[in-house]
Amino acid sequence: MPELSVTRTLQECVNEVLEKMFFIDCSGEQGGELSPEAGITVRLEFEGDPPGVLFLRVTAEAARDVAGGFLGIDDKDLSEPQIGAVVCELANMICGSVLSRIESSATFRLGAPHIVSSESDSGEPGRRVQGAVPDPAACSAAYAAMVGEGRLVVRLDLEKPAWNASARSAF
Amino acid sequence: MAYRILIVDDSPAMRTFVRRVVALTGLDVSRCLEASDGREGLEVLQREWVDVILTDINMPGMDGEEFLRRLAGHETFCSIPAIVISTDATRQRIDRLLALGACRYITKPFLPETLRAELEAALEVPCA
């Protein structure tokens, strides 16, 4: 599956998850940076064909919006642990949704999403994603979206290009 | 008839969401019990009867696959319909979980209407 298709799949999955499970309509753009602005960054590793890692970064405003939408709680009543847990769940759903579409017929296994507190833990968060893939055999896609007054960026790093069953059968 | 539901998921946020969506479905639910993994789910079932189980797959401790195996092998619990809720929508995984005894499979993300339809089917609720 070409890199652009992975990016498009990522975009579709983010929008679908936010709409159905968080009751949020968002507008977004392909590409984007995991910029070091204040917020929450979640890292989620997965095994599969191919394996890889997903990063989700949300600004504080977007984090409160998604947590409030998911739990049905007013922003002012949300605790920090609740917000963190919901952002982890959002990463889990986006990752599972994307992998279900791009992985081969083999099943995948998601690791536990966790909040990364430091820049060094989060995998070069300031690095430009599009057009800057260090390993030519790897594949990276990113999607940025506005969520209310905040911003959300998702980056998916695959250890090799993904080939789903339908793409593979074309060769 | 008021139904009793068991929600098994390691994420408290997800359990809260499912409980909330169950309430939105309008089904007559008298109680939503919760467990954070399969082992805790079996403990709940030892002391409380439920009409339907909603379970995640990927959980630390006893995961959803082992939980379904234990339910299927139990003389009483095997009669409780179990619905899987998971982000994994691969055909292989769905087929395996259904073969293990799950009666329905819901993939995340899902709409409240989907959960309602699957619950009604599992509970064999008569059409209104």
Question: Quick check: average pLDDT of chain B?
Answer: 94
At the fourth level of CATH, the homologous superfamily of chain B is Response regulator
Domains counted in the coordinates of chain A: how many?
Answer: 1
Please provide the ordered H/E string of secondary-structure elements of chain A. HEEEHHEEEEH
Task: From the 3D structure, determine the CATH topology of chain B.
Answer: Rossmann fold
What would you call the shape of chain B? globular
Number of DSSP-assigned strands of chain B: 5
Q: Which architecture of chain A per CATH?
A: 3-Layer(aba) Sandwich
Q: Assembly state here?
A: heterodimer
Question: Which architecture of chain B would the CATH scheme give at its second level?
Answer: 3-Layer(aba) Sandwich
Structural class of chain B: alpha/beta
Rg of chain B (CA only): 13 Å
The average pLDDT value of chain A, as a whole number, equals 79
Q: How far apart lie the N and C ends of chain B?
A: 13 Å
Give the spatial strand order of the biggest sheet of chain B: 2-1-3-4-5
Helix and strand run of chain B: EHEHEHEHEH
Helix content of chain B: 40-55%
Count of discrete alpha- or pi-helical segments spanning 4 or more residues of chain A: 4
CATH classification, class level of chain B? Alpha Beta
The major sheet of chain A is characterized as: 7 strands, antiparallel
